[in-house]
Design brief:
- With about 260 residues, the protein is an alpha+beta fold.
- It is built from 4 helices and 15 strands.
- Strands 4, 7, 8, 9, 10, 11, 12 and 13 form an 8-stranded antiparallel sheet that branches. Strands 1, 2, 3, 5, 6, 14 and 15 form a 7-stranded antiparallel sheet that branches.
- The chain is elongated.
């Protein structure tokens, strides 16, 4: 009995030491991956990296991690351009758009022997683009939409039921309307582009040519250069902005 008791004590101690070693190793790996991801993507702040699954060390021996969660705040994504809007007041198109709280779950992460590269078999994630950021894709300067009528988009907000409320400021025969006119718009994703399209035309009290008005109300924002090569999947209007989901395969985490 005494020998059995000693064996049990030794087993518990060794198990405890293994757990401690495993947690120390995973913490070191997470910090290293976060630093490399920051460097590779040129991030302003260090992202969060969380390696899921236990034990970590047996996953390392197998050369593949079950799941890695990455969190990036205020990610500056590349934009290849916006159509239907000039973007900035000086008539140029912004080359970056800020994406808030980008979180990605990467599964089946295989890594090289020297840990210089890691690639996930698949990845899914979520993020938010604020309405202020998306507004950069809309017309910043007034546009002639009819004889003596100019208009521009001055605000975006949550319209409820998955719609975006688009506020249009108009000047009719030299007189600015006392308040913006709003329309509800649908938002969708096509390829690497977020599209906003009005469900109906704004009522400015006069007959308007639809094609000219839609130069104002409808706009698109292309978003590429997302980390690791992930792509836009879906988008929907939400209280603070448009919530997007992303996905990808063979996504590079490091290297």
């Amino acid at each position: 009995m005494r020998a059995l008791r000693i064996l049990l004590i030794v087993t518990v101690i060794l198990g405890g030491l293994f757990i401690i070693a495993d947690r120390v190793a995973v913490g070191f790996a997470e910090d290293e991956a976060a630093d490399r991801l920051k460097t590779n993507e040129g991030l302003a702040t260090t992202p969060s990296v969380s390696i899921k699954g236990f034990p970590f060390l047996t996953q390392v021996v197998g050369g593949e991690l079950d799941e890695v969660e990455v969190g990036i705040k205020n990610y500056e994504a590349d934009t290849s351009g916006a159509t239907g809007g000039t973007g900035t007041a000086d008539g140029t198109t912004p080359d970056k758009i800020r994406i808030d709280d980008l979180t990605a779950q990467m599964r089946g992460v295989a890594f090289s022997g020297d840990y210089s590269s890691a690639k996930a078999a698949s990845a899914t994630g979520t993020a938010t683009i604020s309405y202020d950021e998306l507004l950069k894709a809309a017309k910043a300067e007034p546009v002639d939409v009819a004889g003596g009528v100019t208009a521009k988009v001055v605000g975006l907000s949550d319209g409820g039921n998955g719609k975006i409320k688009v506020e249009v400021e108009a000047t009719v025969l030299g007189t600015k309307l006392p308040r913006p006119v709003s329309v509800l718009s649908s938002v969708s994703v096509k390829g690497d582009t977020v599209q906003v399209q009005a469900d109906s035309l704004p009522n400015l009290g006069i007959q308007l040519a639809e094609d000219k008005v839609r130069l104002i109300t409808d706009f698109r924002q292309q978003i590429d250069g997302l980390p690791g090569g992930i792509k836009l999947d879906k988008v929907e209007a939400a209280p603070k902005g448009v919530d997007i989901t992303v996905k990808g395969s063979d996504v590079s985490l490091v290297g």
